[in-house]
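Researcher: Excuse me, tokens okay?
***
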Amino acid sequence: VSVYTNISEGCLEESSDEVYQSRENSREVNMHLGSLLIEIGSKLSTLNKQLCQKVNSAVAASLSVAPSLSICAAEESFCTALALVEELESSQPTSSEISNIWIKGQHLLLSGRAHTNIGASILELFQSGGMSSALNTIHRHRNMAQLSKALNHFNKAIASTGELRKNAMAIMNNANAKSISIYNAGRTWASEAVHHSYDAIELRSLASRHCGTCLWKLDRINEAKNVLLNAVSTSDLFELVDREGLKAEVIFGALCEGYWSAMLLAELSTHTWESISFLSKSELAKGEEMVLMMSDAMKRAAQISEDFHSFAKKFSLDDSINKYSIATRDQIEKEEESIREVWNKRKNDSKKKVMNVSRPPVNLPRKDVVGDIRNRGDFRPQTRRIFVRDDNGFSSRSRRRKKGEVERNRREEKSVVESFHAEFCSEERAEHSTITSSTRMERQSTKKIEYRKWGDEIQDDNDAKMYPGCCPPLPPDMPADLRASYEAKYAAILPNMSESDVMAFYACVNRK
């Protein structure tokens, strides 16, 4: 505050060493403070997960705000540091002297780091759930705007690394490049330029990894793929080794950032196809695309891993191998093969599910309703008749009828009654019926009567002992591993529905 007061009062010049050093010290403090706040926010987030299980919902809601506040404070500190870098740049006089060229490169480096940290803070806030729920349209647009803001900072950081490498080349081509640096007595200006070149590569690899994450979350998949696969150039790194005092082990930081960027792409693409429900050809095509992207990422990671291990072996840097824990090419290739096996199994299971789930026929036989029985050969269709009977066995009339007519009517009635009992009565009831004794004796002398089949007996003859199985579609938000298990277990009965039909189905269920 006193420095700004002295500047405003004219006691100090903007370009004075005292003002420059004061701003640089303040910048360092803000960058360090921001890093501490990010670390505190991460620890608070871990602590909250443990405490939320032991406290009520109100206290848990209050605790959940703390990590977000810490990350927001970190972002503010990084923004302050960036503003101070801009003040340093504006106060620095332009000159062709090699010292001023180096200072310009230093400002580019500090500005790129500040932009990277600001973007990383916004991305961390998004990933930790500190932003509003994306289910609401307004909140979703707000979140996308924040991601775009973070992406803008990462792009500026990447652009500053390009300018930094150009500035380093300007130092290397300067006539005084072999002279001793006035800022680091143990280095020449050429050595300072080489270190700036490495710093640019390392910062670019880190910013590219965050940039790729933002692009992926913004559904800019192809752009994310290009950024993550080209996060680092191994050839550029190896050119700097043992050049102007740059030690071999220094380059491992940037090399590992490139490896982690490739593995991040493999992880993102794998998680994407794991969430696919295989309900349409478009989803299957998207899954194939994601598997190919995973394969490209694994190949890139395997290439960097091979360079890493061969380089470490060449310079006897076994400690660096243990420090960074980079998987070998063989391990990466085996992991890729296992992921492909899981993909192929899920794809084949989905095809079986579609083939096994047949559409139900129009007229299904039911256990409580008889189907079309006219095609059966074990009995003839009969018309059920209802008879009104009195104590004498038949209805009697007061008027007299002719003898022949009476005998004919009795024979017809006898035939009808016997037909009825043959179809619907048990043998025991038939014996106790009120028909004539001669008819009863004839009934007992015949073979055992075969009755019409009914209910489940008809169902058995139709070879349809069970109803065609079916179940509701799996919820769209079901975890990928649980979905894969259920699809494999219930492949024969899951319905073949498109993703839009599944969403409409559960929307209807939720409304009810």
